[in-house]
Specification:
By secondary structure, the chain is mainly beta. The chain is built from one helix and 17 strands. It starts with a helix and ends with a strand.
């Protein structure tokens, strides 16, 4: 006969078995482990070489917060894109239990931007990233793979190198630069500092930099000497760690100009 004593034993044994199972599995399927939040800040750029992304091949801006609750402001990097670079839009992002981060932003020429990817543990890049625009005049036919999904370290410190022109003339250049810690209302950062052209009669060194902008991996700044009235506008790209500035074009105007060329500056 099945007695209450046997029933009690059955309940106790079942409880012990359930406890052992819980210890072995760590958690139930109904309670997935949420990844720890990763800090996400700074100057970011996303880009794709896909033909379907020709309307928005590159975009950049500032991210703040964590992978659990990210906010930011972004804009296009190309004047020929479907949305002017001066038109910024807000974005927000979260990360699910599988570690996939999704960032969305509306106001992209009447459409909605979505960026997805796996955020690196250091919060500085995404792997397997893609982006898409649904609706509006920027709409993609399909999501595109991001060939760049990267945070760029600030341009800070002393940089030295050379400018050269098409005639082979080389001049020494140095600059002490500091990037703003936060962006403006469009997600662009600025630079302050000075530049020097040692033993160059066209400039009374050092010269204060002006008209500066840093957005994604691109920069522009101007050396303008109020005494000699010579001015050099420098545009280029920089490495993700902020140690190398590649001047893809500099243009000199004033009594010593016109002249133009390229250059390279390395952090000291």
């Amino acid at each position: 006969m099945f007695s209450p004593k046997h029933l009690s034993c059955g309940i106790v044994c079942a409880t012990l078995l359930l406890s052992a199972s819980t210890l072995l599995t760590g958690c139930s399927n109904n309670n997935p482990v949420t990844p720890s939040a990763i800090t996400v800040t700074g100057n970011w750029q996303f880009a794709s070489t896909a033909a379907t992304a020709k309307g928005l091949p590159s975009l950049s801006g500032e991210f703040t917060g964590t992978s659990a609750a990210l906010t930011g402001i972004m804009h296009s990097d190309s004047a020929s894109s479907c949305i002017p670079p001066a038109t910024a839009f807000d974005v927000t992002g979260t990360t699910n239990s599988a570690g996939v981060t999704t960032i969305t932003g509306s106001g992209v020429a009447g459409g909605t931007l979505t960026i997805t990817g796996n955020l690196a543990a250091n919060g500085k890049s995404f792997t397997t990233a893609s982006y898409n625009v649904v609706g509006g005049t920027c709409a993609f036919a399909t999501a595109v793979v991001a060939t760049m999904a990267q945070d760029f370290a600030p341009i800070n410190g002393t940089y030295k190198g050379n400018f050269s022109d098409a005639n082979g003339v080389v001049i020494a250049v140095s600059a002490t630069l500091m990037q703003s810690s936060t962006s403006d209302g469009s997600g662009n950062f600025t630079l302050t500092g000075t530049g020097s052209f040692p033993s160059n009669p066209c400039f009374n060194s050092p010269v204060t930099v002006s008209n500066t902008q840093v957005t994604g991996g691109n920069f522009t700044f101007t050396y303008a000497d109020p005494t000699t009235t010579n001015s050099v506008v420098s545009n280029g790209t920089f490495s993700t760690d902020g140690t190398m500035l590649t001047v893809t074009n500099w243009s000199l105007t004033g009594p010593c100009g016109p002249d133009s060329g390229t250059g390279l500056l390395t952090q000291q």
